[in-house]
Every structure is written in structure tokens, then in C-alpha cells.
């Protein structure tokens, strides 16, 4: 019949892609947040590389869990439990 129109991009994907451009990689929290967004976009290698640059001992458990989700190619939003009792995430 007529020409096929390109499928519209999913709004959530467009929003996450725009968010990655706004997120800073200058501190551990920014790298963690950006890595999570990249993972949800299916950019597992980029997310894993960014997670490798997080050097805060208090975030080591969260980094391991996010890397494991990348290894499983999991793009779903997942709850990450906090680290050891009394630990504060940060730089």
C-alpha cells in the first residue's frame, strides 16, 4: 500500500538517552547513576566500564550487583539494597 512510517521511539528510551547526556561522571554517585541508566538502555559494556571507575568502598556491593545485572544482560529496574549497616554511599 503506502510507505511505511518509522516506528516512533519509545518515550522512556528518549528520556533515558537525554538523561545520560546530563549526568556527570566526575564523582562516584554520578558514575553509578549514569551506569544504571546505561544498563537500562542495554548499553552493558559502557555501564560496566563506568562501574569499574567507581572507587568508593561503601559502594563496592552496589557496583558488584550492577555488574552482575550487566553480565546477565538485565535491563529491568531492580532494587539495590544498601551496603553494610552504618555505611553511607558516596565518594
Task: Write up what this structure looks like.
The protein is an all-alpha fold and 91 residues long. The protein has a domain at 11-71. The protein contains 4 helices and no strands. It has helices at 11-22, 28-40, 44-51, 60-71. It is globular, with a radius of gyration of 16 Å. The chain starts with 10 loop residues before the first helix and ends in a 20-residue tail after the last helix.
How helical, in percent, are the residues?
40-55%
Strand content: under 5%
User: How many beta-strand runs?
Assistant: 0
Largest sheet: none
Query: Given the structure, what is the number of helices?
Result: 4
Q: Structural class of the secondary structure composition?
A: mainly alpha
Low-pLDDT sequence parts:
84-91
Q: Report the C-alpha radius of gyration, rounded.
A: 16 Å
Write down the overall geometry: globular
Order of helices and strands: HHHH
Distance between the termini: 58 Å
Q: On the 0-100 scale, what is the average pLDDT? A: 85
What's the topology here?
Elements (H helix, E strand, L loop, with lengths): L10 H12 L5 H13 L3 H8 L8 H12 L20
Summarize the structure.
The protein has helices spanning 11-22, 28-40, 44-51, 60-71. It is mainly alpha-helical.
Could you name the key traits of this structure?
91 residues; disordered C terminus; single chain; 49% helix; mainly alpha
Amino acid at each position: 500500500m503506502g510507505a511505511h512510517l518509522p516506528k516512533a521511539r519509545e518515550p522512556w528510551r528518549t528520556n533515558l538517552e537525554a538523561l545520560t547526556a546530563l549526568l556527570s561522571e566526575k564523582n562516584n554517585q554520578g558514575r553509578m547513576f549514569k551506569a544504571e541508566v546505561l544498563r537500562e538502555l542495554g548499553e552493558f559494556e559502557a555501564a560496566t566500564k563506568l562501574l569499574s571507575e567507581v572507587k568508593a568502598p561503601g559502594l563496592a556491593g552496589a557496583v558488584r550487583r550492577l555488574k552482575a545485572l550487566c553480565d546477565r544482560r538485565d535491563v529491568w529496574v531492580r532494587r539495590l539494597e544498601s551496603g553494610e549497616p552504618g555505611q553511607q554511599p558516596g565518594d
